[in-house]
Each structure stands twice: as C-alpha cells, then as structure tokens.
Specification:
Chain lengths: 112, 114
C-alpha cells in the first residue's frame, strides 16, 4: 500500500527566499513520485517526476526535488521564490503512474 | 505531454438533476481517469476508464451515481447523477501519457449544486 504525507498545509515565504515543501511517502515497492502544481481555478500541472532514474530531479519553473530512500522523502525546493509561484502543490506516490495517491496539498503564499 | 480539454469548465446545477462532463485529449491514450476534488481537499480517484471495457470504480463510488463512457481513445464522459449539494466539487480527468509514466490532467470542471 502507498501513502503520502505533506507536512504543512500552508507555507509562506518571502519573495526571493528558499521554497521548501515537504513530502514523505510510504511504499512497499520502489515508488513513482510526482509533484503537481495547481494554480487558482486551473487543473493540475506536472512539475517533476521520479521514476527510478536520477535521485535529483529537475522540473519546470526552477523547481527540483531529491528522492531520499533512507528518509522516504521527496521534498520540493526552489532557491528563490517568485510571486508567480503562489499556488497549491500536491505530492503523489504510486507503484506506477496509473495508480497515484495524492497528498493533501500545501498552499504556498509568497510575500512581496 | 497531452493537451486535455474539459466541458463545461463550470456549472451551477439544481439538486436532483444530472450533469455530463466531457473530456477530450489531443492524442490516443489507453487509460483515462476521473477524479473528484472537494473544496479545500486533495484528489480522490472516482474511476479508471479504458476504451472498450467497463470503467473500474474505486471504493465509495458506484456506476449508478457516476456513469462513465469511453467510446474511443480520445474521449470520455462522466455523468454526475441525481445531484445533491455534497456533489459540489471540481471534477478532473487525466490521461496516462509518456509511455505510461505520467498522468496529465485537464483543467477541471467546477460544479456547484444548489
């Protein structure tokens, strides 16, 4: 069985500051891991994915995430927050891309 | 990637009525999915729709309430039947792309039931 936990339903950062959104997963088999972003009144957009290749994954808009098996984590980071990063971020885990379990989401606010 | 459109983008409906949501993708895909996102919550999978077979529903969702059609490899519909205010949600379709390695999502249908 898979599950995913996103710590912090709301995160606020200042513009230009580091963004860190936390995701921990549970999986009995090597997982597929995803980060999606949802802007207001829009669907989900893929930010990045881990599918057993390189552990440091680079995505769109300057985001990246590192798969750490020993910590069962897949935290999302961005060195410098931009106002346009304000959105809801969802972490998802699955044994494949066809059976994803989504976290409860983290709403990112960027303070000017 | 895949380009996915949904119709309608939003609707306001009266309780007891039904609404059919359409999902169109710009390429042929084997698997399509329907999700519900209740206000302020995460995504819950309703069902998986494969072309040429009955949809597979997740626990808590039944065909009588959420009938799904999948007539070809680029199109699917989800009907929300006999609606109540508790059905007010965003309904999202997604497809399996990148040779089965990624789910891509449509823009969603925002439904309000009065």
């Amino acid at each position: 069985a898979q599950s995913v936990t996103q710590l912090g339903s709301h995160v606020s950062v200042s513009e230009g500051a580091l963004v860190l959104l936390r995701c921990n997963y549970s999986s009995s088999v090597p997982p597929y891991l995803f980060w999606y972003v949802q802007y207001p009144n829009q669907g989900l957009q893929l930010l990045l994915k881990y599918t057993s290749a390189a552990t440091l994954v680079k995505g769109i808009n300057g985001f990246e995430a590192e798969f750490k098996k020993s910590e069962t984590s897949f935290h999302l980071t961005k060195p410098s927050a931009h106002m346009s990063d304000a959105a809801e971020y969802f972490c998802a885990v699955g044994t494949g891309a066809n059976n994803l379990f989504f976290g409860t989401g983290t709403r990112l606010t960027v303070i000017p | 990637s895949a380009v996915i459109s949904q119709k309608p983008s939003r609707d306001i409906c009266q309780r007891g009525t039904s609404l059919t949501i359409q999902c169109q993708v710009d390429s042929q895909v084997t698997m399509m999915f329907w999700y519900r996102q209740q206000p302020g919550q995460s995504l819950t999978l309703i069902a998986t729709a494969n072309q040429g077979s009955e949809a597979t529903y997740e626990s808590g969702f039944v065909i009588d309430k959420f009938p799904i059609s999948r007539p070809n490899l680029t199109f699917s519909t989800l009907t929300v039947s006999n609606m109540s205010p508790e059905d007010s949600s965003i309904y999202l379709c997604s497809v399996l792309g990148d040779w089965g390695e990624t789910q891509y999502f449509g823009p969603g249908t925002r439904l309000l039931v009065l």
